[in-house]
Fold these 3 entries.
Entry 1:
Amino acid sequence: MSPNLHPMLNVAIKAARAAGAIINRAALDIESVRINQKQVNDYVTEVDLASEQAIIETLLTAYPGHGIWAEESGNTHGAQDSNYVWIIDPLDGTTNFIHGFPVYCVSIALAERKTNGWQMEQAVVYDPTRNDIFCATRGRGAFMNDRRVRVSKRIRLADCLVSTGFPFRPGDDLQQYLSMFSDIMQRTAAVRRPGAAALDLAYVAAGFSDGFFESGLSPWDVAAGSLLVQEAGGLVGNYSGEADFLEQRECVAASPKIYSLLVNQLGKYSKFAPAGEKAGLRQSLRLPGKAQE
């Protein structure tokens, strides 16, 4: 751990590495991992659960007065009325993991209750296959390992590499997604679908890709990555350019210039506001239980 990092961020990194060690051990023998299906094309493994438990134990040992909202077990840990809530995804990219496709990560974010709602304060995305730590503290910038990172400097959509996620749940609007995909694909240099949204956002923050968009994401998929992008100089919002993407399950992230160009293309697909309509920059986050505003 680094003495230069915020103490809470150091604890989050410790937790992410503990989870990553469990994931890496299991990856050596994927075929022996027990897998359950939550719903069609949505999986949870014993590795998800063990990783989540390691994160929870590490965080609550350091901060027993905090709450935890975990993907696999819900907001059932720690202090339910705390002004600090950790939002964790112990293994983002489970489908990749169970196939041995090495694109997955651990995602940990800390939200703090403010007078105007919840705000992300700490973020860690850990790629255990490459031993890469992406981290950020609000107001202190974003880092990959020990190096400060910034979003890309490209200003033309035609030059950009953009990542996305494909619909995979029953009821997802495949035809609308194909229209979005077509619009973006024809206007960019390339589109990629790695399969782990938190890592996609970390890559936008690091400038490895120029933008990202996806529908149907949950808060634990984007909480940490969104702060990384913002601290790297980028913008994150929903398809119509509003800041309440955590509630609305639409996410666009990019440098400011590319963000505006992506919103211009995606705004018409937003379920929540007409293209171009602005509802203000509301940094809100609805958390379950007593921590909900």
Entry 2:
Amino acid sequence: MAGAGIVTCHSPDKPQQTWRYRESSSPGFDPVVFDASALRARGLITGVASAGRGGTIFFELDGRPLVLREFRRGGMVRHISTHSYLQMGLERSRAMREFNLLMELEALGLPSPQVFAACRTRRGLLETGELVTHLLPGASFAEHAAESVAARGELSSSLAVSVGRCIARFHAAGIEHADLNAHNILVDKTGGTISLLDFDGGRRHVGASVTATTPWAARNLSRLARSLERLDASSVFSELEQAWRAALQESTPSASR
């Protein structure tokens, strides 16, 4: 799904490397964004993510904050290969699939990171990938949960309701998040805007309506419940779930299983 204004090309120096980026992005596209060593040498790196599987770097390009994420494996297979995947073709690569999905989310007006560029590199029968997005300001739902539990012994119910309604917006549009946990939910500084992050492995279901009993949507909520339990913040999950169910019922049928 590379639409108007999207450039897909091979690196002039590395023909096994394919780039995809916006033709008129701001800042302008620079392949240095895929090279953590080069970013470090230029003094552009501003931080490294502490949560997740690693491979996420925060940096600035022409004064604009961006995020570089290297695709890395989870589960037991990570002990065999941390970031190489079986080559399945360009459009089925993780980098290009997430680039395309983020473009869809933007078109749908769903709160998620704006994509900047993607890179897929062929390595024999394997491939690796990187994705660059614009940085969204705020703190993760996990951070809010940890701070609230430490300070008050519980998480704000109003925040839980906002998170539930945000998730319902994505589900009503047929968007399945492959790893919906508290670290992949972002709360802005005012607490008024909730966004979802990291759509690696995500997909869009198009067709009939999504309900609270749609299997993939219910699995998303179950995964989030386990995440909150690990943070000792499971007490607010029932309010979050109720808000999610109510928002789904209010939504116009627009997606399928």
Entry 3:
Amino acid sequence: MMQIKDYQAFWEENERAFRFDGSSDRLPVDLFLNGDWICDYMQADCPRYYTEYEYQKQIRECCSRVTEAELGHRIKPSVDFGVVQDVSIYGGRFQCRPHATPVMTHVIEKPEDIPELVQRMKKVNILDAGLVPVYLQWRDWIDRDYGITLTYGDAIKGGATTMAQLCGVTNFCTWIMTNPDEMHLLADCWLETAIRYVDTMRAETGYVPGDIRKFSMMSDVAGLLSAPLYDEFLKDAEGELYRRYAGGPGDRRYYHADYHLMHILPLLRDIGVNEVNIDPYVDCSQILSVIPDALIWGQIPPTKVLLYGSPEEIRQCVKRDVSQAGASRQLVIGPAGSINPGTSFENLRAMCEAAETYGRIFISGEERIR
């Protein structure tokens, strides 16, 4: 296995590899350490991390010094509220317990509450709603402290996950069967609110799409729906967001779900999805059999292999993925989901080293997979 002697050079080349233009003969690696991993490693106070700017800043800076020493990897300044900012605009109460990621309390206690919520959301001022004012304040402080201007508006929580956060997962899965009329109202409300939210946040933060536009949706709960239910309740709504924000033939439409998703993958293909980070229970060849032109963002199982597996198991996973998707540059090496708290530096190094060993597939114009 090829050991990496200069991680700074590794990540500099990684930026070139992400261009997919021949600037590097190696496939890129996606290594994103989120707040859950950071808090676990630093033994941080989670409620303080997610609610106090100076504390979050301090923890991220301290953790970055460690990751730079271990991996040459810098944790960049960011506003981190976990997974709840998008749903916070609907009015739930922010909650964060020790050693846990933040959640929002349910907004909908019974299906009969939905029409009232729909009417209320029509009048909500996005800039005053939920965590948005806090985000904008922290964004100003990051600009002050680092000279970095953050923008917002190229990604959103998908419809199934947002609705499940509003109702509770069990209620969502029940009511979509027992109360379809109300749930159709909620799905329509989500689409209308999502458009206002994205448009407002883009305007407020100065977001400017690039020449190739990209829009991302993250929706683990989508995998709990059957294909007919996803088709009925969410396909058209999520498709509308892609058409609105990344509708061109060369644009990138990304979908993330940590859970089983192969059963709705044909429907995602139909709405134009061409980048995926999904379903650790399948491999790249299965995904490409449904969406042949997909760019696959990682297929290493994040728990079974990257967290609990051995470095050799990680290497074999990367080798498999490169064999199936790498030759056509349709692979970003990484996990099918988030890097879980507790994932060791040894295993993260194994992923990067496997990229060096198996990911250099274009040598002098010839494909090579070792």
